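Hi R.,

Here are the chain sequences for the assembly we discussed:
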Amino acid sequence: MPDDEAVAEPTVVLPRWMEAVAALVPDGVWQIASGADVPTLVVASTHWRGVAEAMRDQGFRLFVDLAAVDHPERSDRFDVVVHLRDTVQRGLARLRTTVAEGGVLPSLAAVFPGAAWPEREVFDLFGVGFEGHPDLRRLLLPDDWQGYPLRRDYPLEGPRVLDPESRYAL
Amino acid sequence: MTPLPETTILNMGPQHPATHGVLRLVLELDGETVVHCSPEIGYLHTGIEKQAESHTWQQAVTDTDRMDYLSPLMNNLGYCLAVERLLGIEVPRRTQYIRALMAELSRIASHLVWLGTYALDLGAVSVFFYAFQAREAILDMYEAVAGVRMNLAYIRVGGLMADIPPQLPAMVLRFLDELPRWQHDFRALLDNNPIFLGRTKGIGRLDRSQCEAYGVTGPALRAAGVPWDLRKITPYSGYEEFEFAVPTRDEADCYARYQVRMDEISESAKIVRQAVEGMPEGPWRNTDRKITLPPREELGTSMESLIHHFKLVSQGFAVPAGEVYQALESPRGELGFLVVSDGGTHPYRMRVRAPSYYNTQALGAMMQGELVADAVAVVGSMDMIMGEVDR
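And here is the predicted structure of the full complex:
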């Protein structure tokens, strides 16, 4: 395992904000992992937006990234991960939640306008919906694409490539 | 009869010379004023994150090259730092210095391409030729260390492709001696050029709070007065040992971004000089044979080396299960790698937080209220690389 002393981000994020966020959204935070490579809050999907808003009000105003990871063997197969930074206290924080296939998360686009594209991308490549998103369309793939390529069970050569009816077929 | 709409929709791109690749902007115009701008991306999507899942940890280095093709070494470095954190290994100090040296050279090269093409977009043709001529020396250094001039894959998990060749320090120092003259020429052509000033000053403003909300980092954030540079905030690869400043400007417009990048070239040159002059002796890669290939000459005499070689080449090394987010300061901003391992020999997930992606998304906010003629100046000032936007 990595030696935490040597490899952890040298910025010290005070647990103050973690406690504050957990107190603001008491039933929304499932787990606090301060020993991970980045201090992490695991959040109930129903409180996703509330926790993000509380984080922003704690100073984490720089929206870094929103991404998904697929674990097809789980019933809640998608991890959705958000990274935020505090440019004054110089902290980095991670929020994580899980969604089931066909599930929907509250959109963060109203809290962080920068979340609009990555949410569209997760919708495009994983098929996770976002409730309250201003413009939830596919971002990278053509609008009539079928399937969600970044799911683990999507083959490297997709059906679109093999389907002779497709107007994109060679 | 239905009345004519009050606004016009204008498509800029995806085949427009000033969009630097294949970016499409849908501009809604009221006369000459941009009422709404909606960037459309995806024309260069090549599924790099998906491809990485089918490669071994070491092979995936070559996927990262092809995102930000103007500074491929930054991508290599970010990915390798993330995997090395998962592996829990350190690289020797010499490796760190060589990595920082090559990364800063590629920052200079990337800024030079930006400078040339930005001036070209605004009608100043000669800057383009000078900037590319200056960049040529860096491409020659790339060629000397890795044999190629693009897509180097020079930085590998656990170390480097090879040690730097003996002629490299002299090449670098010669370039550093010439660089101030180049910079003087660039500034003489642009700094007081009334056309350049008129087209960049006060154009495309994006203040601190907008930058943060949209995830805009790099020169655009520093041009909004925030001394935010991950090389200082969370130093990696030995950057804490180098002395350099973080240039900032307060105007948050296109001209401020130009000034920040010009100053950054000088700061990167300082790091390059420190790295060359203070280059430590020692091994240039990790010596753990479970991760790093054994030296070629041992293969004929050592059975153990032969087995290690065979295992590494045929199936690669396994990485302990876990998740790591590693970010670094690329020429365009925060380049982050969220790497997930399930304990196997292939990445389970490689998510790339590309700075250009967020900088491109913010174009909509920056363009509002600008004149359509300034669209080119605003797009160019964000220095986006569509390869990493679409991945």
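Chain A has a mean pLDDT of 80. The radius of gyration of chain A is 18 Å.

Let me know if anything looks off.

Best,
T.
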